[in-house]
């Protein structure tokens, strides 16, 4: 028979509880990009998920208060970039509010479907947006992979306990 949990440690659900619980969850780090009418936009995401293999679908969350939201909301295609452990500064740049994320030293080029593609990442996909699902103060973006490149080398960058980290053997 197992012992009952200490009910005194239970906390009612709140934004802080959710953030605290997910600080315990190591997540891969990605950068999502899209091309707006007059400028590219992008942000760091740890919510990237493979949804289905057939058709090849992915999802990620984006806050509707994010500076990237208006561009992503109007985009037909997005870029999904898997960052390597050597790219913590790139991840921080795309996470920083008010930064010119595409200015040097960020290296990028215009890829398929006009999507900004970051150079030097482990892998990238260009995906067609198929749905924007309301989820509180966020939207869950469902997108179908169209084309990609997985020729980058290295190990993935992780996010855990509020910091960027590398895998340990």
Describe the structure.
This protein has a single domain (15-156), classed as Roll (Pnp Oxidase, Chain A), CATH 2.30.110.10. It has three helices and twelve strands. Helix content is 14%, strand content 41%. Strand 2 (30-35) and strand 3 form a beta hairpin. The termini are far apart. With 169 residues, the chain is mainly beta. The protein is globular, with a radius of gyration of 17 Å. Keywords: Oxidoreductase.
Q: Record the strand order, biggest sheet.
A: 3-2-6-9-10-5-4
**Inertia-based shape:** globular
Distance between the termini: 35 Å
Please give the share of residues in helix. 10-25%
Radius of gyration: 17 Å
Unreliable runs, pLDDT <50, ≥5 residues? Answer: none
Could you say what the CATH architecture is?
Roll
Count of helical regions: 3
Coarse structural class: mainly beta
Question: What is the CATH third-level topology name?
Answer: Pnp Oxidase, Chain A
The largest pleated sheet is described as: 7 strands, antiparallel
* Proportion of residues in β-strands: 35-45%
Could you name the CATH homologous superfamily?
Answer: Electron Transport, Fmn-binding Protein, Chain A
Order of secondary-structure elements: HEEEEEHEHEEEEEE
Overall pLDDT confidence: 93
Number of domains: 1
- How many strand elements? 12
What's the CATH first level?
A: Mainly Beta
């Amino acid at each position: 028979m197992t012992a009952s949990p200490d009910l005194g440690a239970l906390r009612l659900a709140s934004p802080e509880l959710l953030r605290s619980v997910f600080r315990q969850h190591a997540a891969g780090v990605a950068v999502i990009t899209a091309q707006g009418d007059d400028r590219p936009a992008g942000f760091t995401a740890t919510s990237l998920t493979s949804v289905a293999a057939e058709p090849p679908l992915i999802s990620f969350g984006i806050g509707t208060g994010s500076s990237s939201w208006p561009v992503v909301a109007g985009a037909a295609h997005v870029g999904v970039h898997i960052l390597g452990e050597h790219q913590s500064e790139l991840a921080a740049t795309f996470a920083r509010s008010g930064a010119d994320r595409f200015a040097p030293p960020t290296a990028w080029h215009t890829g398929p479907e006009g999507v900004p593609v970051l150079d030097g990442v482990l892998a990238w996909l260009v995906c067609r947006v198929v749905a924007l699902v309301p989820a509180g103060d966020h939207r869950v973006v469902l997108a179908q992979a169209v084309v990609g490149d997985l020729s980058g080398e290295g190990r993935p960058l992780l996010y855990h306990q509020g910091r960027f980290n590398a895998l340990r053997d």
